[in-house]
């Protein structure tokens, strides 16, 4: 297993280990862009000033006539919020330091954070970053890109903080609206829309939003399989149609009692109805003539979730600050699966019924106090308490020859499923202490110490109670070598939160031959020591931003599939702790205005991620990557604004570096690859300020393919049973949106 010193020697080889097909192309494209950017910088004057905060006033965006705060942020180099929604761009696999998500934590790790007037929204599902599409551009005073650390911030230890500053006095309100229609692969048109009203009256500010965003999806799956002797077995064609409705209401209120005392309320209510119809045609190639089996499935899925949060803040005359935050949320899910086999006369016979329900509740209270202790130094201390509860149940009925049946259960036989009905509860406390030290105008150091103590109990089909304790230190050092170049290093112990769904039996949505996945009541948290080194270089005259990151992580108690078989006639697996592992990689990003070719309104953003991981497989005893861990990713986006025509257009390209995404299980091995995703868009604004946007998505069809190799018995026996090759095509997407404010 590589050590930290070996990782440093490994970096050049890491760049060469990507697939030959994309490696030369994407690395060359990124390198060319970096060379052009550096060449431009050598001919430009340096910026002055020692402050690590970069400010973009509202006037900076006036030439583009933005509608929302998100429109404005997308124009800032290094802040492109475009994200893939399918295809090769989907990130997946291994080692994510932010996996889980219960509670808030005394500190924050990793990526960029968004604040409104220096404050984080008192919510988890209704997050601050989501508000940007609802806030009118007319409410924005400035954007602050905060690259340093400060006790005045509501978040700590983030790579970068974006603070959206609103005008203090805004007596009038503003209404934003969006109407859209999307054309799916099968030609169906799906309408949607959203509206929000926001403003300020005296010391009271508000933002109310409502949205209806259907997510209709039609996908075609084609699968060919061969038997262990490589003879043809069958051919399967599936058409899966999901007609999903997403309706949401949200509210953000704030009131300033005085210049040093304020209160904010955040609320969300959302309903999601996602019924799915599936038709499956299986042609048996082992018989002559081939026989055809037709099945259909009903897959109802309903979800309702709400969240309510509030926080109070008081700043004393000497600058010390007290903050109290509370959040409560609930997530209700109900999903089912009914499978019918059709005979030649169209008659149906039900052979499977599966119903899963879950209710997750969470209550969080967090209090903190921040105070100056010496010149340039402050500390924040406090405690967070989080209580999370999952109530889960699963019912399974099958068509069994000779089984006990009843008309009340559609003539099917109820099946006994281990750990099908359970309640899981965690009560967690996190006292924390954060020391912030501005050493001088160039250097800052943030040190965090968090003590996590929790108790996880499970009742129902299984009874189990366990206690956990972790000490989680973190150091974040930043050095502004020049006003434009910042270096940053960090060391942190991260404890990943457990997914309660892994504790109980759940529906297996990936394998038609398996109805349920087993739960594991003995899971422990996966944790890691993570080392990072970052550099950020801001080109002069707002020409762009270049960033690079090296990371290395030593993981303990890695969570992956384990053999939990109790009956050799029916092999079972569940998520469990399989041992220790390592992860390492390199991230390069460039966001550049192409002024060197006389196109300053052309913003090109590109990123290259190269990574690898290693853990010992519990089934075969071999060293392999983490489950479904992709080897890297390349993104290329551009936005070209043409102010004189009141239009902009652009492209988004997302591609995963294939070749390493495996999933090992007790009796099969999966391998995944996917096509890149390419999106195009164009926007036009009329003289009234109304925006018309056309999006063309998944121009490569977004094909995702999976090879599943099944074995007779365990994979360690290496007795090949079947090879399934399956590809899913979701097809191209077309959408049209109209946005405006009044």
What does the model show?
The protein is mostly beta strands and 742 residues long. It has a domain of 260 residues. The chain has 4 helices and 39 strands. It has a 31-stranded antiparallel beta sheet that branches. Strand 20 and strand 21 form a beta hairpin. The radius of gyration is 27 Å and the shape is globular.
Residue ranges: pLDDT <50 for 5 or more in a row?
A: 10-50, 83-100, 106-110
Q: Please tally the helical runs, counting DSSP H or I stretches of 4 or more residues.
A: 4
End-to-end distance: 60 Å
The portion of residues forming beta strands comes to over 45%
Radius of gyration: 27 Å
Using the alpha-carbon principal axes, give the shape: globular
Helix content: under 10%
Count of extended strands: 39
Largest sheet: 31 strands, antiparallel
Broad structural category: mainly beta
Report the average pLDDT across residues: 85
């Amino acid at each position: 297993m590589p050590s930290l010193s070996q990782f440093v020697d490994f970096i050049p080889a890491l760049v060469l280990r990507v697939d030959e097909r994309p490696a030369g192309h994407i690395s060359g494209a990124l390198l060319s862009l970096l060379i052009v950017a550096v060449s431009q910088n050598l001919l430009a004057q340096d910026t002055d000033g020692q402050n690590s905060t970069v400010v973009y006033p509202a006037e900076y965006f006036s030439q583009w006539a933005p509608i929302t705060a998100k429109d404005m942020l997308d124009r800032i180099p290094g802040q492109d919020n475009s994200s893939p929604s399918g295809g090769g761009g989907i990130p997946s696999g291994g080692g994510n330091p932010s996996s889980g998500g219960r509670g808030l934590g005394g500190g924050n790790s990793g990526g960029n954070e968004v604040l409104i007037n220096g404050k984080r929204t008192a919510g988890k599902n209704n997050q601050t970053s989501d508000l940007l599409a609802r806030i009118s551009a007319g409410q924005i005073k400035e954007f602050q890109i905060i690259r340093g650390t400060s006790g005045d911030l509501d978040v700590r230890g983030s790579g970068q903080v974006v603070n959206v500053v609103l005008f203090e006095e805004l007596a009038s309100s503003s209404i934003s609206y969006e109407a859209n229609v999307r054309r799916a692969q099968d030609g169906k048109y799906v309408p949607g829309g959203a509206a929000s009203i926001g403003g300020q009256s005296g010391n009271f500010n508000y933002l109310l939003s409502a949205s209806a965003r259907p997510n209709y999806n039609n996908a075609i799956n084609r699968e060919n399989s061969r038997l262990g002797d490589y003879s043809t077995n069958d051919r399967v064609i599936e058409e899966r149609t999901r007609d999903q409705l997403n309706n949401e209401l949200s509210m953000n209120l704030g009131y300033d009692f005085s210049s040093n005392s304020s209160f904010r309320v955040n609320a969300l209510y959302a309903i999601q109805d996602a019924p799915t119809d599936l038709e499956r045609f299986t042609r048996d190639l082992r018989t002559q003539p081939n026989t055809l089996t037709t099945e259909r499935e009903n897959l109802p899925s309903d979800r309702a979730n709400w969240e309510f949060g509030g926080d109070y803040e008081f700043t004393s005359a000497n600058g010390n600050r007290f903050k109290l935050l509370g959040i409560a949320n609930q997530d209700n899910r109900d999903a089912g699966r009914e499978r019918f086999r059709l005979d030649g006369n169209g008659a149906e016979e039900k052979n499977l019924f599966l119903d899963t329900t879950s209710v997750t509740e969470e209550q969080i209270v967090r209090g903190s106090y921040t105070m100056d202790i010496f010149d340039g130094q402050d500390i924040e201390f406090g405690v967070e308490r989080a209580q999370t509860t999952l109530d889960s149940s699963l019912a399974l009925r099958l068509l069994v020859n000779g089984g006990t049946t009843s008309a009340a259960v559609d003539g099917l036989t109820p099946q006994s499923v281990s750990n099908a009905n359970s309640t899981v509860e965690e009560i967690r406390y996190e006292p924390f202490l954060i020391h912030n030290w501005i050493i001088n105008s160039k250097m800052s150091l943030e040190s965090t110490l968090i003590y996590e103590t929790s108790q996880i109990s499970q009742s129902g089909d299984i009874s189990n109670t366990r206690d956990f304790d972790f000490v989680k230190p973190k150091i974040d050092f930043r050095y502004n070598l020049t006003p434009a170049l910042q270096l940053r290093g960090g060391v942190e112990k991260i404890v990943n939160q457990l997914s309660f769904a892994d504790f109980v039996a759940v529906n297996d949505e990936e394998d038609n031959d398996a109805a349920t996945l087993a739960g594991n009541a003995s899971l422990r948290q996966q944790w890691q020591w993570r080392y990072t080194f970052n550099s950020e270089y801001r080109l002069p005259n707002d020409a762009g931003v270049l960033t690079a990151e090296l990371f290395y992580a030593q993981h303990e108690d890695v969570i992956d599939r384990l053999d939990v078989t109790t009956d050799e006639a029916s092999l079972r697996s569940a998520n469990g702790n399989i041992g220790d592992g390592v992860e390492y990689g390199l991230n390069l990003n460039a966001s550049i205005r192409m002024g060197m070719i006389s196109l300053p309104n052309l913003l090109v953003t590109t990123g290259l991620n190269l990574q690898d991981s290693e853990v010992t497989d519990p089934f075969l005893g071999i060293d392999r990557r983490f489950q479904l861990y992709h080897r890297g990713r390349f993104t290329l986006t551009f936005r070209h604004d043409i102010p004189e025509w009141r239009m902009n257009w652009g492209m988004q390209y997302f591609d995963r570096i294939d070749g390493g995404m495996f999933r090992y299980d007790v009796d099969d091995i999966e391998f995944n690859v996917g096509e890149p995703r390419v999106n195009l868009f164009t926007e036009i604004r009329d003289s009234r300020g109304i925006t018309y946007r056309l999006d063309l998505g998944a121009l490569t069809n977004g094909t995702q393919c999976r090879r599943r190799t099944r074995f007779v018995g365990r994979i360690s026996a290496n007795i090949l049973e079947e090879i399934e090759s399956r590809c899913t095509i979701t097809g191209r997407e077309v959408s049209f949106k109209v946005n405006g404010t009044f």
